[in-house]
Design goal:
With 192 residues, the protein is mainly alpha-helical. It has nine helices and no strands. It is globular. The relative contact order is 0.13.
């Protein structure tokens, strides 16, 4: 298998995840702007999750671009990441349906955290396959940004038990941290 097929499959799964999320937002009955008001929490949770899926899509592109070979470990690690990302629509829907209730914020954070762990595992497997002098290894270095992401996810989960707004602020901060795609890999590959 070449990396083009792996990337195409992953892109398809991510596109389906976004499609599922938008289909959860139902057209309101009525013809007044006030009829849209109940959709606000659903739409806000959709926006946040759309950003997260977009972040993973962008950074996944750079990960796959750094590959020179594919093996079974990489395929399974990639599927592991896609599994956790595929749960984002459920967490998003529950969060939006319940106006960001504490339990829904907890589930959302757990899904984000496990997605970040799966991404980290995929990175590590790629580095172990490609070697410690690989493009990816050079690009991510000690990966402070990735480690900070996991800390923000855990903080969001912990805060969700006490205050859903602080939890939401942690998740929003995390999204803003990654909103601009991670250019570390792109910089290294453009030099080669």
């Amino acid at each position: 298998m070449n990396k083009t097929r792996l990337e195409a499959f992953s892109d398809g799964v991510l596109a389906i995840i976004i499609t599922i999320m938008i289909l959860e937002i139902k057209v309101p009955h009525g013809h007044e702007f006030a009829d849209l008001k109940p959709l606000i929490p659903k739409f806000l949770s959709y926006i946040l999750s759309f950003i997260y899926v977009g972040i993973y899509w962008n950074n996944h592109h750079y990960l796959i671009h750094s590959l020179t070979k594919i093996n079974g470990k990489i395929l399974w690690a990639n599927l592991h990441l896609l599994f956790w990302l595929s749960l984002i629509p459920i967490a998003t829907g529950w969060m939006g349906e319940n106006n960001f209730a504490k339990a829904s914020m907890t589930l959302y954070g757990v899904v984000l955290f496990l997605s970040s762990i799966a991404y980290f595992i995929l990175q590590r497997i790629i580095i172990s396959t490609e070697g410690k002098d690989s493009v990816l290894a050079k690009a991510i270095g000690n990966d402070l940004k990735g480690k900070a992401s996991s800390v923000l996810c855990v903080a969001g989960v912990i805060f969700s038990f006490y205050n859903e707004w602080i939890s939401g602020a942690a998740y929003l901060t995390l999204a803003l941290l990654w909103l601009i795609p991670d250019k570390r890999i792109e910089r290294i590959t453009s030099k080669n």
